[in-house]
């Protein structure tokens, strides 16, 4: 691997652990960062000014990549289709209490369109072509073997057509078989309504570097006192973030050649920024993280350790092989709530008992008033009660 030799790169080449501060000092920001930040700020301003009670949640979704070269040919990838993040975004939007900033891996699943992924429910398979009257009365035409089976395909709308082409296209109608229409119509209506009301703002990333810079920037916007969002902000960090990376100063400039045989790669630990999110970037927000393990015996201890180390509010923990049917909710008090599909109705009844009121007093600021029958852990869970319940529904369906 090529290594930079300039003195300015000495910090990045130091094998010691990267702190978040050191990371952002030594790794370059994405080119579009300023534009993305401004768009996020305008989105937040719009909702703060148009609805003083509207909550805004930042959802991160999908996996991050770690390039092995500057001119990227090879990279390491954290697997994640983004199902949980996209489903959760829909769930937050459905409550009519949240606007959503959706920070997602490019080409991963997104809200609404996730229902028609290319691999399991291809959109084209749901469409039918109604033949023209002439075709329906004649036998099906099959080109001879010396002709192309079909014309050259273009993904772009046809700008100019000959009279023959226009006549041919007009004779055909594209339809959706009746059994698919109810589901598709409900999804399409929701999609259009959300965009009409400006409730969903999407941002994409690919690399772990892009993710970290965008997360920091968006979290800081949500935490800006001048915007006045305060405790109505939430961060729901569902992305599958790489644990290791190669600093830009250590990357090979060009494609790593395979002629030398085996390849040894030395990687640095990606800085844990959750404490920065909690204590600095969005210190008023309610913050939820996720913990995935393959060893179930490590799941609860590591989730509790994360809450102690980073000081955020809730960990949604799951084991790899049961992640789509079962999760554990672990809060600051160490309360563990196993959530499975079979107890959804029980959870929904519990949700109706949660009660919290925020009031403003000029002399003391925000005062938290608790219902005397409720314990603090339940109050904490109330802050994301809607999202938790609908998230669980989304995960298991």
Provide the descriptors you would attach to this structure in a database record.
single chain; 397 residues; alpha/beta; eight-stranded mixed beta sheet; two-stranded antiparallel ribbon; 34% helix; 20% strand; globular; disordered C terminus
Provide the β-strand percentage band.
15-25%
Shape label = globular
Low-confidence stretches: 1-12, 341-397
| Rg from alpha-carbon coordinates | 25 Å
Determine the mean pLDDT: 78
The CATH topology assignment of the domain at 1-119 and 172-256 and 264-284 is: Rossmann fold
Number of DSSP helices?
13
Structural class: alpha/beta
SSE pattern, N- to C-terminal: HHHEEEHEEHHEHEHEEEHEHEEEHEEHH
Q: Give the distance, in angstroms, between the N- and C-terminal Cα atoms.
A: 45 Å
Spatial strand sequence of the major β-sheet: 7-4-1-8-11-12-13-14
Corresponding CATH architecture of the domain at 1-119 and 172-256 and 264-284? 3-Layer(aba) Sandwich
Major sheet attributes: 8 strands, mixed
Tally of extended strands? Answer: 16
What is the name of the CATH class of the domain at 1-119 and 172-256 and 264-284?
A: Alpha Beta
CATH superfamily of the domain at 1-119 and 172-256 and 264-284: CoaB-like
Oligomerization state: single chain
The percentage helix is 25-40%
């Amino acid at each position: 691997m090529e290594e930079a030799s300039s003195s300015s790169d000495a910090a990045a080449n130091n094998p010691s652990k990267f702190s978040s501060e050191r990371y952002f000092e030594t790794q370059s920001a994405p080119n579009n960062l300023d534009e993305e930040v401004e768009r996020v700020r305008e989105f937040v301003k719009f909702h703060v000014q148009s609805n003083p009670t509207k909550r805004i949640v930042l959802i991160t979704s999908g996996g991050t990549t770690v390039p092995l070269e500057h001119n990227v040919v090879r990279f390491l990838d954290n697997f994640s289709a983004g199902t949980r993040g996209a489903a959760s975004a829909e769930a937050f939007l459905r409550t009519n209490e949240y606007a959503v900033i959706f920070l997602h891996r490019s080409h991963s699943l997104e809200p609404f369109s996730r229902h028609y992924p290319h691999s399991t429910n291809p959109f084209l398979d749901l469409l039918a072509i109604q033949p023209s009257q002439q075709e329906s009365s004649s036998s099906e035409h099959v080109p001879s073997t010396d002709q192309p089976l079909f014309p050259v395909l273009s993904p772009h709308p046809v700008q100019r057509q000959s009279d023959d082409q226009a006549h041919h296209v007009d004779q055909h109608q594209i339809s959706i078989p009746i059994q698919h229409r109810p589901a598709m119509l409900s999804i399409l209506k929701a999609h259009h309504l959300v965009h009409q009301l400006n409730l969903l703002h999407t941002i994409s990333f690919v690399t772990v570097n892009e993710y970290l810079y965008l997360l920091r920037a968006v979290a800081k916007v949500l935490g800006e006192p001048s915007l006045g969002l305060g405790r109505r902000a939430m961060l729901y960090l569902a992305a599958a973030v790489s644990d290791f990376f190669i600093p830009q100063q250590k990357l090979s400039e060009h494609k790593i050649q395979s002629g030398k045989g085996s390849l040894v790669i030395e990687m640095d630990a990606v800085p844990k920024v959750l404490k920065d999110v909690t204590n600095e970037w969005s210190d008023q927000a309610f913050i939820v993280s996720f913990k995935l393990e393959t060893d179930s015996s490590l799941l609860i201890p590591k989730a509790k350790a994360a809450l102690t180390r980073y000081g955020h509010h809730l960990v949604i923990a799951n084991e790899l092989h049961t992640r789509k049917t079962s999760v554990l909710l672990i809060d600051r008090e160490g309360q563990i709530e196993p959530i499975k599909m079979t107890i959804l109705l029980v959870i929904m009844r519990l949700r109706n008992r949660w009660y919290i009121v925020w009031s403003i007093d000029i002399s003391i600021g925000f005062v938290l008033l608790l219902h005397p029958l409720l314990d603090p852990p339940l109050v904490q869970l109330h802050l994301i009660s809607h999202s938790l319940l609908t998230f669980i529904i989304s995960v298991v369906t």
